[in-house]
């Protein structure tokens, strides 16, 4: 919000609505008495569908980040140590499985190289990952199995049976020079 208030936005042009769908329905973009030009929202799929419906009824533009992961924007005046820490936590904390996880990092040109260098240094100091193998029969033999190996979770009396492994597994090969 600080960036918005310090920018050239006209007062009232950017009004964040925080809360559940009831708040949004009370500020219904299909209400002709309200001047709402555009609707932007990061939300769950359920809320996003309702917002899209309300916006469509009023012929308003809507940009929705549904259940999404948000971009992290790092500007020239950022504290680089803190920005790198925030970027790494945003991408990898909770294995990236959060609605606020950063799936993209946008860095301004003025600090791009320094940001990348500090991020690379962080990985060099703090990463200790190597080959991860789960299944003993393939350990040290077949490095083309999916990350973590093939588990027995897709076998047995499940609805899809043995076809589940082929359907739900995307094999990716990663090589790392030691």
Automatic annotation (TrEMBL):
Active site: 65
UniProt-listed InterPro entries: Ald_DH/histidinol_DH, Ald_DH_C, Ald_DH_CS_CYS, Ald_DH_CS_GLU, Ald_DH_N, Aldehyde_DH_dom
NAD listed as a keyword: yes
Pfam families, A to Z: Aldedh (PF00171)
Protein's UniProt keywords contain Disulfide bond: no
Origin superkingdom: Bacteria
Keyword annotations of the record: NAD, Oxidoreductase
GO MF term set: aldehyde dehydrogenase (NAD+) activity
Aldehyde dehydrogenase domain sequence ranges: 44-124
Family: Belongs to the aldehyde dehydrogenase family.
Protein name: Aldehyde dehydrogenase domain-containing protein
Organism: Pseudomonas putida (Arthrobacter siderocapsulatus)
Phylogenetic classification of the source organism: Bacteria, Pseudomonadati, Pseudomonadota, Gammaproteobacteria, Pseudomonadales
């Amino acid at each position: 919000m600080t960036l918005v208030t310090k920018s050239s936005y006209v007062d009232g042009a950017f009004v964040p609505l925080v809360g559940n769908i009831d708040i949004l329905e009370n500020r219904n973009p299909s209400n002709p008495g309200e001047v709402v030009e555009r609707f932007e929202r990061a939300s769950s799929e359920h809320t996003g569908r309702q917002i899209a419906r309300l916006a469509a009824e009023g012929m308003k533009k809507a940009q929705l980040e549904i259940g999404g992961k948000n971009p992290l924007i790092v500007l020239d005046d950022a504290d680089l140590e803190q920005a790198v820490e925030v970027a790494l936590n945003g991408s990898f904390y909770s294995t990236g499985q959060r609605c606020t996880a950063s799936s993209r990092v946008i860095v301004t040109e003025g600090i791009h190289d320094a940001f990348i260098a500090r991020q690379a240094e962080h990985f060099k100091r703090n990463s200790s990952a190597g080959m991860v193998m789960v299944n003993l029969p393939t350990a040290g033999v077949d490095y083309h199995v999916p990350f973590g190996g093939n588990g027995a979770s897709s076998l047995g009396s499940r609805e899809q049976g043995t076809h589940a492994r082929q359907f739900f597994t995307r094999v990716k090969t990663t090589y790392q020079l030691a």
